[in-house]
User: Fold this.
Amino acid sequence: MLIPTIIMGAIAIGVSIVAYQQNHHVEGIKSSLSMIIEILPIVIFAFVTAAMVQVIIPKELIAKWVGEESGLKGILVGSLAGALTPGGPYVSFPIAAGLMRSGASMGTMVAFVSGWALWGMSRLPLEIGILGWKFATIRFLSVCFVPPMAGIIANFFFKIIK
Assistant:
């Protein structure tokens, strides 16, 4: 986590210098604070949820349903759980990290994140409302195989790299 933090810090400093040179730094700081106030509560709740999942769900149950030995069942469970997870990456990534720390397999978590990104049920009403049923149906049918396949491929690569 140190290297991504350093990279994001360097980027933040770099764009802040550019904003200062263009005399937009005050506007940028106000916008930053507004985003922090809006996003920080959900990030905190997501991390609390991820941490609580780790301690309240027995590791044996996680291993059975989404661990290494869960196989295709775990990948399908991960895909569906990702699809049902509301919110943005601030919610889904901490949950995935918490499940991985509790024993979920790499393939299952790849399927979870892919299911969240491609099957996201919380975004479906907006997609249908803006783009229509036909588009939403064709898009879903075009990607419905991706989360399970991504999980299977991830398990394969993880076994090779492990």
Notes: Residues 41-161 form one domain. The mean pLDDT is 90.
